[in-house]
Design a protein that fits this description.
InterPro entries: AcetylCoA_hyd_C, AcetylCoA_hyd_C_sf, ActCoA_hydro, NagB/RpiA_transferase-like. The protein contains 13 helices and 21 strands. The protein is α/β, with parallel strands linked by helices and about 400 residues long. The chain folds into two domains: about 170 residues, 3-Layer(aba) Sandwich (Glutaconate Coenzyme A-transferase), CATH 3.40.1080; about 180 residues, Glutaconate Coenzyme A-transferase (3-Layer(aba) Sandwich), CATH 3.40.1080.
Length: about 400
């Protein structure tokens, strides 16, 4: 019958007409289940699909097989579905996704990728995200067992999972991402940000060149309390500047990161935890050590409002944990930092009016950093904030009138 046929046969016993199915997200998205799920959904009829974060290639889904497709996060792999109108992107900060998935978008079935630990027990692999909450709430879980994904889950083993098959190779290994080398502008921004990080702080950062540059620039020991873990955390560990076990809800990087996280996980130091823990604003703002949240942006307006979701109708970005970490950082003794280039493709990133939604409000932004310098907005009134931001961009580009 073939792998797809075997998986489809297993799914056909679990996917009922009119049911809602959630496809687990992150770099460990169960790609092997996408095509057979489409076939089963088409036969069953009325099946509704929930997607999470799709950071890699689009899963091989047939949109017409589903009565409705919604994504609670988005990502590059979901962009075509969203922009074509085949999928609806539900605007929600990541900390709100458990409530959505426990309420109006509660699925009847969760499809995931799992791994076996050294005792043979099943666990989530490169991400825990909102999946652990659904499991704890009693939503049935069916999964493929990956022979090549990392064991990074800090939670207890999973019981009662319907195993549909085992996968390896492209369908089993998590999506990998290479980090380009930082440029001069990245290093200029990173140096300014690093100067704001005290010894013993907790830092939050995403993937990419800027994160790599920040780790290069740091010279004090820090803990990592983040939404994602990228390769830069391995660099931090190798430099002897990483305090404790990092916390994140998902891994996003190269095999080097996945191997590192697997070694920690098998030593009882799992690095991925549920969204309910990683994005809990109260915990983030009160845990020991000030939280320095480093986030980027597509654009920022003169009042300090931030857009990371897209401009001109594109679905290039996503809300994710951006507003969660920014809000947590301003509530405690830490800092909410927005770092971005002064211009992108010849256009200023400081605008009079955002070209997309407000992802993070201005009152959750403490400091803005570009390659040209720093604007510290703390304690400033609205007019003063506008002047500080305009001065930071003045002479580099001409902001929109």
């Amino acid at each position: 019958m073939g792998v797809d046929g075997d998986l489809a046969r297993g799914l056909s016993e679990l996917v009922a007409p009119g049911s809602r199915v959630a496809l687990a997200d992150g770099c460990g998205l169960p790609y092997a289940l996408a095509r057979p799920l489409s076939a089963v959904a088409a036969r069953a009829g009325g099946v509704r699909l929930v997607l999470g974060w799709v950071p890699g290639p689009a899963p091989d889904l047939e949109p017409d097989a589903f009565a409705d497709i919604r994504t609670v996060v988005g990502g590059p792999g979901a962009r075509a579905l969203i922009e074509s109108g085949r999928a609806h992107r539900v605007p929600a900060r990541l900390s709100a996704t458990p409530a959505l998935l426990a309420g109006p978008l509660r699925p009847d079935l969760l499809l995931a990728t799992v791994v076996r630990d050294d005792r043979g027990d099943l666990r989530f692999g490169a991400e825990a995200s909102w999946m652990r909450g659904l499991y704890d709430a009693g939503v049935p879980v069916a999964a493929v067992v990956s022979r090549s994904a990392p064991h990074a889950d800090a939670g207890p083993p999973l019981a009662g999972v319907a195993v549909l098959g085992e996968v390896d190779g492209p369908d089993g290994a998590p999506h990998t991402v290479a980090t380009p080398a930082p440029g001069d502008a990245d290093r200029a921004v990173a140096a300014a940000v690093a100067s704001l990080v005290p010894a013993g702080a907790r830092i939050q950062f995403g993937p990419g060149r800027l994160a790599a540059a920040l780790v290069e620039a740091l010279d004090v020991p820090v803990a990592v309390d983040s939404g994602l873990l990228a390769d830069a955390v391995v660099d931090l560990d190798e430099r002897g500047l990483l305090r404790g076990t990092p916390s994140s809800t998902a891994l996003y990087g190269s095999p080097r990161l996945y191997d590192w996280a697997d070694r920690l996980g098998r030593a009882g130091r799992g690095t991925v935890r549920p969204v309910e823990h990683t994005h809990d604003v109260s915990r983030l703002s009160t845990d020991p050590g000030p939280l320095v949240a480093l986030n980027t942006a597509l654009e920022i307006d003169r009042d300090g409002q931030v857009n990371v979701e897209g401009v001109a109708g594109s679905a290039a970005g996503m809300i994710g944990g951006h507003p969660d970490f920014a809000a947590a950082a301003v509530r405690g003794p830490g800092l909410s930092v927005i770092a971005l280039p002064a211009a992108h493709r010849g256009h200023p990133t400081l605008v009079e009016r955002l070209g997309g939604p407000v992802t993070t409000p201005s009152h959750d932004v403490d400091v803005v950093v570009t390659e040209r310098g720093t604007a510290d907005l703390r304690g400033l009134g609205r007019a003063e904030r506008r002047r500080a931001l305009s001065s930071l961009w003045d002479g580099a580009v001409t902001p929109d009138a």
